[in-house]
Amino acid sequence: MSHKIVVGYDGSDSANAALAFATDLAKTLGGSIVVAHVLEWSPYSFLTPTELEERHKRRGEELARAEAAILAPAVESLKDSGLQIDTALKYGNIATTLGEIAGECGANQIVIGRNGEPGLSSRVFGSAAISLAQAAPVPVTIVP
Amino acid sequence: MTNQIKAAALAAPAMLAASAPAMAQSLDQTINEGFASATGWFVTLIFSPFPGTSFPWIVMWLVIAATVFTLYFGFIQFRAFPHSISLVKGDYSDPNDAGEVSHFQALATALSGTVGLGNIAGVAVAVGIGGPGATFWMILAGLMGMASKFTECTLGVKYRNEYEDGTVSGGPMYYMTKGFAERGLPAGGFMAVLFSVFCILGAFGGGNMFQANQAHAQIANVVGDFPGWITGLIFAIIVFLVIVGGLKSIAKVTEKVVPFMGVLYVLTALVILIMNANMIGWAFGEIFSGAFTGAGVAGGMVGALIQGFKRAAFSNEAGVGSAAIAHSAVRTKEPITEGFVSLLEPFIDTVVICTMTALVIIITGQLVSDPNTGLYLLDEGASTIQTVDGNKGVALTSAAFSSAIPFFKYILAIAVILFAFSTMISWSYYGLKAWTFLFGEGQTKELVFKIIFCIFVVIGASANLGPVIDFSDAAIFAMAVVNIVALYFLMPVVKGELDSYLSRLKSGEIKKFH
Fold this sequence. Notes:
The complex is a heterodimer of chains A (144) and B (514).
Chain A: E1 4-8, H1 13-29, E2 32-40, H2 49-77, E3 85-92, H3 94-104, E4 109-113, H4 127-135, E5 140-143
Parallel strand pairs in A: 1-2, 1-4, 2-3, 4-5
Helix pairs in contact in A: 3-4
Chain B: H1 2-46, H2 57-72, H3 76-79, H4 81-89, H5 103-114, H6 117-130, H7 133-158, E1 161-162, E2 168-169, H8 172-182, H9 188-223, H10 228-243, H11 248-275, H12 277-293, H13 300-316, H14 322-327, H15 335-342, H16 344-363, H17 393-404, H18 408-439, H19 443-462, H20 465-507
Antiparallel strand pairs in B: 1-2
């Protein structure tokens, strides 16, 4: 069974460091990589009526933008690595959702950067790294 | 003689000094008189009593509808209550739908449109006219109204329009046209147009003018009296910035602060009730005895009943159709689930929050009663109960709360302004949906509506409470007239959805995800 690594990725420098670390690891162990991006989302937040009406449309736009601006470049950069690369894109609490992605795809470990840059559609890391370390179902490596 | 001249000479500069505010006050007066004469006929039509009685037919209309829905769906508001809570918690939400509108969000947004001045000022009006007994009828109307809300919100989701770009539009206009066509019933289009017209009036009235009016009353209560059009103008500018300028930051802040204020309001009421725990039994005694005997209130028992039902309907909007517009954006494969969720709305709004307000007003002894007979004393004109300081509407609630916790009137003032504002934002959306249904979508057409909406903010803040509340009620209830007719014709559709859903829930076909 090959070694599968989920990388929490948001396009930041720190996330790229995590991705590079995971790539080396996967090459050494003969594993594969799942590049995962989580859009921060709470079903208990408050929206105005207009936001409710447009939510489905916005969700489509947000997913397309994350796919194009964050996941596609990451996959492109690993094209020549010879590794099997998959992606995952979900809404939710970052730490919980990364743990769920790892569980669903049967990953052996999760690698994330210590802190991401604010901006784009979500701020993936920061305290999420700590929460993930506490809650993840598999070992977690935090890359500085 | 010389003294008179002296007096006149002294009075002249004083009159000059006073003329500026006098002009401002007279602007308020002009707006008030013009408004009252323009809307009088409409108010009379909606609130005309049954011949030979003083009972307005519209109140009976709402009571009968709520009773019919309650019986037809077998007391669904009590049977489905636990399931409604699991739905809101997200127990049945597909994790793959994360990022879509959740049941909780649809409920929260709809609530921010209904929890507002109706709960604070409206209840004070009800208790001020109908006495403590009005509370009983208000709670009963809230409980029964849950079934009306369930019916309309299920239909709102079932017959909503989903456009190619992913946006949705729903509400009574759509179930009247699509639902009636599907069942081969005539006149759906006509009813949709009629409803839309009333919805626009409702958006200008209860969703706007009443809010502006009571927000001004509350501000004036704290900082001292000043002309209403000033408050109106400031409110209108902010509303304009949000709904026309697309200034999301204000709406965002409001949407976040309003739930917090709602919780704070209920907690404060609870604190006051706990401080007076020994009087809660007495207060409920007053409520029950007042409900059936009408202990000396204006109009007796019927007066209490009318006020209770009127203010409950005005506060939770059950049967009015507005909530069906707000709830229809939820992401669900089962329209009935939004019906279940929406029935919590009158419960939170009326049974919990309105009752809190009423109890605080009663317990803090704002209503003046005759020490010998225990009957409530009426004002001159015998239309309202005497209050300790002659307060009415929101000022009465404010007096009740600050008599227990003095600084509370400042918190209440902030709450009132925020509630008023969030209700205006919600209703500007409901009105706009009705407007675009009538005239079609388009930037200019939408701008026209939004500008008229802002003008009514100024009128509402300037006019007196009486004409404003009459028109607000009349417009909101006119919506209910059309909406409830449609609900009667379409309730078998809801019944079909309900039976199918409940049997699948029982067989385990519909499972919890969490």
